[in-house]
Amino acid sequence: MQDAGQQVLQLTYFGVRGSCDKVRLLLALTGLEYREIVVQGRGLKHGYEFGQLPLLEDGEIRIVQANAIVRHLARKCNVYGTTAKEMAECDMWMEQLEEVQQALWNADFMKDCSEFKEAQLKDKFLRGYLASALEGICRVMAKNRTMYLVGDKLTFVDTMLFSLLEAIDRELPQALATFPLLIYFRDTIKRLPRIAAFCNSGRRF
């Protein structure tokens, strides 16, 4: 919980999930209070550092780039692992999950095309890159022997994987059907009280 008198964070982004979904989920998980400013129009990004959003303002700290924000919040709230080994594993997971997320966003079926062509491209992506990526995630997850990606407690990469799995489920509803471990993980994270409250609040977009 946030201490009385602690400054409320301010988050600026568009009214979509996008790269800010993992930031909002981590804020929900940690219970940090924040005020969100929703901007309209991509041209407004030029007024921010490097022309990038989301932007987090935490007192004198002002950070753009979603992954930088996530790392800052994870350090602030002690969800970045408890040892050097766990922190390194969190970084490894973050890079891998970001790679899969970017592949999903950049997939050919996300571009304008006919319904028939879109179905073909989705099937190709699902059977090719995505199936291999999800199998790899499951193999590494299984090595930890807990319900978490790193160590024996929640870290920020758990919310990152949850965000990714929900994005995959929206675009390719059949993709997770053969990965019961990922379905169990997604459903477990979604039932966490703070995550459940956030997902049902309308603040997630």
UniProtKB/TrEMBL annotation:
BP-aspect Gene Ontology terms: glutathione metabolic process
Keyword Hydrolase in record: no
SUPFAM superfamilies reported in the protein's UniProt record: GST C-terminal domain-like (SSF47616), Thioredoxin-like (SSF52833)
A single GO molecular function term of this UniProt record: glutathione transferase activity
Domain (GST C-terminal) ranges: 83-205
Coiled coil: none
Matching InterPro entries: Glutathione-S-Trfase_C-like, Glutathione-S-Trfase_C_sf, Glutathione_S-Trfase, Glutathione_S-Trfase_N, GST_C, GST_superfamily, Thioredoxin-like_sf
UniProt EC number: 2.5.1.18
Highest rank taxon of the organism: Eukaryota
Pfam families according to UniProt: GST_C_3 (PF14497), GST_N (PF02798)
Keyword field contains Lipid biosynthesis: no
EC class (word): transferase
Domain GST N-terminal, first and last residues per copy: 7-81
Chemical reaction(s) catalysed: RX + glutathione = an S-substituted glutathione + a halide anion + H(+)
Record field: transmembrane: none
Alphabetized UniProt keyword annotations: Transferase
Similarity comment text for this entry: Belongs to the GST superfamily. Mu family.
Function recorded in the entry: Conjugation of reduced glutathione to a wide number of exogenous and endogenous hydrophobic electrophiles.
Name used for this protein in its record: glutathione transferase
Source organism: Acanthamoeba castellanii (strain ATCC 30010 / Neff)
